[in-house]
Amino acid sequence: MDAIRILVAILLPPVGVFMQVGLTKHFWINILLTILGYLPGIIHAVYIIAKR
């Protein structure tokens, strides 16, 4: 299941984080990072998925 979340996180980082943690502060941080730059959003999303 984590492989699917990581694939989604690469395509749409906020969706991958949402699938892992829901509407928490990590989701909103990821949206901000994705707006500021797509790569930071991906890195954060993969980190959150791998951490849990």
Brief synopsis:
This protein has 52 residues and is an all-alpha fold. It is built from four helices and no strands.
The number of distinct β-strands equals 0
Strand fraction: under 5%
- State the low-pLDDT regions, or none: none
Rg, nearest Å: 9 Å
**Proportion in helices:** over 70%
Decide which structural class fits the backbone: mainly alpha
Count of helical regions: 4
Q: Topology as H/E string?
A: HHHH
Biggest β-sheet description: none
Shape: globular
What is the CA-CA span between the terminal residues? 12 Å
Mean pLDDT: 94
Count structural domains: 1
Short key terms for the protein model shown above:
52 residues, mainly alpha, 0% strand, globular
Provide structural commentary.
- By secondary structure, the protein is mostly helical.
- 87% of the residues lie in helices and 0% in strands.
- It is globular, with a radius of gyration of 9 Å.
- It has four helices and no strands.
- The longest helix has 14 residues, at 38-51.
- It has one domain (2-51).
SSE topology sketch:
Elements: H1 2-11, H2 13-21, H3 25-36, H4 38-51
Helix pairs in contact: 1-2, 1-4, 2-3, 2-4, 3-4
